[in-house]
Amino acid sequence: MITIMNDKSAAAAARAACAQALGLICFIAAGDMVEVVDIMTSLEKIFCVAYLKGDGTSPSHSAALQALHCAALSAWTLLLSIAPPSKVQEFVKTHLPKLPQLLQSDDVNMRIAAGEAIALLYELARVDDEEFLGHNLDSLCARLKQLATESVKYIAKNDKRKQRSSFRDILRGVEEAEAPNDTVRFSVEEIYLDSWVKKRQYEAFKDSLGAGVNQHLQENELLRDIFSLGAPIDVAAYNKQNKISRFERHMYNSAAFKARTKVRSKQRDKRTVTA
Predict the structure, then answer these.
(1) Cβ burial 76-114 (10 Å sphere, 16+ → b, else e)
(2) Model confidence pLDDT, tens digit, residues 40-60
(3) CB of 201 within 8 A of CB of 75?
(4) Which residues have a Cβ under 8 Å from the Cβ of 9 and sit 6 or more positions away?
(5) SS3 of 132, please?
(6) HSE (CB half, 13 Å, CA atoms) of 68?
(7) DSSP state of 153
(8) Rounded alpha-carbon distances, angstroms, from residue 226 to 121, 201, 202, 230
(9) What pLDDT digit, counting tens, does each position of 143-188 carry?
(10) Nearest CA to 197 among 116, 132, 141, 137?
């Protein structure tokens, strides 16, 4: 897969799929950090061409190549989420000064992927140093605020909405060290995505498994272990144990109906008196 990913004559979509797969396979099965760093280096060689050119302008790439660069960066960020503290410090020094360049990309998905990588780096760096400020924080936050409020007409409405929502969270993560606060519900369970680490890991599996991610979260022991969900739950037994009786539901609905009727009657009476 590394060979295909690096093959410039191969279809960009195939190279992007290899980048995504390499990230997930390495995340799940890598034997040691040396192997992880080797894959991260290969991934960076793909997305580094999206950095600004020498004259400070963004390079021009086709949509297919932009998707490849974005896939490589997202896979790199997934592997960053399992890096030990010693490696985190290295990545903070080598990558935090460069990644903000990708916020200038004309591709909304690349801008978001870069923002999430930056937020994750800040989160990991602050594990050991709560006061960590990073490289040129004021300038970075100014750009994040701009992306969180951008309203230019040349950006499609859906892309604009997605960008604003993403960068509001990213800005809070970088500027205020505020973690994401998302909840994923599936069957009778839920996952709290309360860190950028969890968010990136969940998004990686969601992108790979698509609509089947909830089924895997419910039954796949590997995913349940990754997200600390414990052993799979017998949903039928759980529902039976927690199910209220038909009579109890009837009584609850009747009481709610009577309460609504009483409120509406009082409202009609007030309207009649006013009239």
Answers:
(1) bbbbbbebeeebbeebbeebbeebbbbbbbebbbbbbbb
(2) 999 999 999 999 888 888 898
(3) no
(4) none
(5) coil
(6) 25
(7) T
(8) 20, 9, 10, 9
(9) 999 999 987 666 777 878 889 999 999 999 999 999 888 899 888 7
(10) 116
